[in-house]
Design goal:
The chain has 209 residues and is α/β, with parallel strands linked by helices. The chain has 2 domains: 3-66, no CATH class; 84-207, Vaccinia Virus protein VP39 (Rossmann fold, 3-Layer(aba) Sandwich), CATH 3.40.50. It contains 4 helices and 13 strands. The strands form 2 sheets. Strands 1-4-5-6-9-8-7-10-11-13-12 form an 11-stranded mixed beta sheet, sandwiched between helices. A two-stranded antiparallel sheet has the order 2-3. A hairpin with a 2-residue loop joins strand 2 (27-28) and strand 3. The longest helix is centred in the C-terminal third of the chain and has 10 residues, at 165-174. The structure holds zinc ion. Residues 11, 13, 15, 39, 41-42, 44 line the site of zinc ion.
């Protein structure tokens, strides 16, 4: 996890948004390879290991970790991934700075997108299990909440594997007003209140008003 991402994070528990407290262990350049994030409100602690922040609740974390060496999430989407250049155009991102959130199988787009859009940092939520963090990509495991503060992302892409109501509500919440989010599914299971701009070539595009 990139150290500067700390101030964008929030505890996934349903209480007020408050900045988490980071205790760093191993660092590699600006990336925190191991450490602990503590919530000042509910006092939950979330470990960072192999660079990946784990916000899953402890019981599920233990169950996952005991079943294998790596807390794998859902299998990657069998659907073909969208074209990175097309995604960049749909997100209407120009100029460096800020964060783009990728959810599920969409995390696979990070290397190509960061080649097209320099100066942006990507936050991958529940990446496919073979993905590793990069200087431009921080990885996070979460249950059903995106552990980011409200209105912090310049763009969000939700992969086909997680194109369900709870994730779309969260994608919408973390997005800045006037910015766009793309779903790798033309007919996602939409919650009320999301505004559709377009749906074509297997992608659904919305905007936060
Ligand atoms: Zn908390």
């Amino acid at each position: 996890m990139h150290i500067e991402l700390t101030e964008m994070l929030r505890c996934p528990e349903p209480h007020r948004e408050e900045m988490l407290v980071l205790s760093t262990g191993e660092m590699k350049d600006r990336m925190v390879r191991s450490g602990l994030l503590g919530c000042p409100v509910c006092h939950n602690e979330y470990p960072i290991s192999r660079g990946i922040v784990n916000f899953r609740r402890s019981k599920e974390r233990v169950a996952k970790e005991s079943s294998g060496p790596r807390p794998a999430y859902a299998p990657p989407s069998p659907l073909p991934s969208a074209d990175a250049a097309q995604l960049q155009a749909l997100l209407e991102l120009s100029g460096p700075g800020g964060y783009v959130v990728l959810v599920g199988a969409a995390v696979r787009q990070a290397p190509r997108l960061s080649g097209l859009m320099e100066g942006l940092h990507f936050v991958g939520i529940n990446p496919p299990p073979d993905m590793e963090e990069q200087p431009t990509l921080s990885l996070i495991y979460a249950n059903d909440k995106v552990p980011l503060r409200t209105s912090v992302a310049r763009g969000v892409v939700v992969g086909a594997d997680l194109a369900t109501s709870p994730w779309l509500v969260e994608a919408h919440r973390v997005l800045l007003r006037g910015r766009r989010f793309v779903v790798e599914n033309e007919e996602p299971e939409l919650p009320i209140g999301l505004i559709k701009l377009a749906a074509e070539h297997g992608l659904w595009v919305g905007e936060k008003r």
